[in-house]
Amino acid sequence: MKVLVTGSTQGIGKAIAAAFVRQGDEVIVHCSKDKAKAERVRAEIGAALAVTADLSDMREVGGLYAKTGAADCLVLNASVQYKQRWEEITEEAVDRQLAVNIKSTIFLMQAYYPAMKERGFGRIVTLGSVNQRRCHDELSVYAATKCAVMRLVKNLAKECAPFGVTVNNVSPGAIETPRNADVLCDKARRRAVEDKIPLGRLGTPEECAAAVLFLCGKEGAYITGADVSVDGGMGL
Known about the structure:
- The protein has about 240 residues and is an alpha/beta fold.
- The protein is built from 8 helices and 7 strands; from the N terminus they run βαβαβαβαβαβαααβ.
- Strand 1, helix 1 (about 10-20) and strand 2 form a beta-alpha-beta unit.
- Helix 1 (about 10-20) crosses helix 8 and helix 4 runs parallel beside helix 5.
């Protein structure tokens, strides 16, 4: 399969891209702006192609398909997150989260879906968040964008199913990634997070990748419109 994973130069996205490569797929690594970084990751994991596109700029979003061509699997992992209490949220932070997390998701689906529909096969997976279910006093806008994407997944899954295209969401919890490094490197703060997780530990990017590969593989062919939680029970 040919697979595009957005935001795949670090963290969960990189783990997803590497997992697809290991099973023999043709993988496209994506980064927002740093082409050199994308090329380094491409070479490191053995991916086929590295591309850049700023997903907050709809002109660049619109040009991404021309760089990659059609894909069998579209994994929409890239997102931005600003930690701000709701009374302090800025317009800039709202606009960028809406653009990257919601608008680019819609327009990338629009770009890649027609070829999937024509072939009668396709897999679209979005990356959500445990914050779809849990309250976080600094992530209200981020959580709202993830809830919106999940509603989009539900709607599109029903429309795309007759054409052999599944649309699903994977919702990670607290995962060992660079995004969470500032919290996780502090022992007290890390313990506070772990205490909220029934399984008692943080997850790994590879555990998130396993869920994505399952949904895109033959074992997940009868699953669409689903929200798969990979959160150690944190969202319960």
